[in-house]
Amino acid sequence: MDADPDRPPVDLRRRALDLPERMDADDADLEMLERTYERFRYVNAILSGRGGVYRREIAPRARRGAIRVLDIGCGGGDIARYVARRLQRDGRRAEVVGADIDPRAVRWAADADHEGLVQWRCLSSSDLVAEGERFDVVLSNHVLHHLTASQLGGLLDDSERLTAPGGIAVHSDIARSVTAYALFGGLTLPLAGTLLKGSFIREDGMLSIRRSYTAAELTAAVPPGWRVQRRLPSRLMLVRAGHLV
Ligand SMILES: C[S@@+](CC[C@H](N)C(=O)[O-])C[C@H]1O[C@@H](n2cnc3c(N)ncnc32)[C@H](O)[C@@H]1O
Question: How far is the CA of 151 from the centre of ligand 1 (A)?
Fold first, then answer.
């Protein structure tokens, strides 16, 4: 996979938590960061499984009445906008909240939401718990691999508290594997000089895969009540149903 004989081979046997992603740096180049937020929509349209989450979890709940959906760690906000647009197109009553701890992301997401479909909040899941918020669907995409073990525990604990009775939490992320690494590298290479140029998508994407969990690792890392589902292409969905009352 790694053709350069001078470079050591990439080790995908364990999570590379010591490798920081460039977009997470406080001093990341703002122009590149904003282009990354803008380009996320292409990556997410193909990889995030957002259509399946909408069909399986959001649409059936929205048919029963008005619902609230949270996208935690929303980044550029394209998934929250996608969900809000589909709910609107389906004629459902809904409130969609996109939240991120990074003010650069929230600012960009709010500016990109020309139709004003989503409520944008610059805060963490714990802040939302402190506010007493509840949602029928709590979702995230590509957030888990950013977190340390204790941050993951915190996010999952918050997700449980934020999930309304009968609701669901769904955290979607990459499944680390040699295949995922080779496929993402191969598919994005021809786009590196065009669509993805001037963004962190390719470089951070390769790092993201190295930082991600395998299904077995994620299963071992989560508390009881959470289920790990494998999805194509190279995806993990971490799911927990809210308790019915
Ligand atoms: C790779 S980005 C993913 C953005 C978006 N969900 C997407 O799929 O394009 C991860 C985002 O999670 C945010 N994040 C990390 N930890 C968070 C937390 N505890 N609460 C809210 N946002 C968080 C980061 O600021 C970053 O914008």
Answer: 12
Confidence of residue 233 (pLDDT cuts 50, 70, 90): confident
Instruction: Give the nearest ligand 1 atom to 21 CA.
Output: 1
Q: Residue 98: CB within 6 Å of ligand 1?
A: no
Mean pLDDT of the chain: 94
Residue 80: name the closest of 120, 52, 37, 42 by CA. Answer: 120
Domain map (residue ranges) of the chain: 47-175+214-241
For residue range 20-58, list pLDDT tens digits in order. Answer: 999 989 999 999 999 999 999 999 999 999 999 999 999
Nearest atom in ligand 1 to 48's CA: 8
Angstrom distance (rounded) from CA 209 to CA 197: 20
CB crowding 230-243: b at 16 or more within 10 Å, else e: eeeebbbbbbbbbe
Residue 41 CA, closest ligand 1 atom number: 9
**CB contact at 8 A, 232 and 223:** no
Instruction: Reply yes or no on domain 47-175+214-241 having CATH 3.40.50.720.
Output: no
Whether 128 and 101 have beta carbons less than 8 Å apart is answered as no
Q: pTM value?
A: 0.94
Structure token pair of residue 101: 């701890």
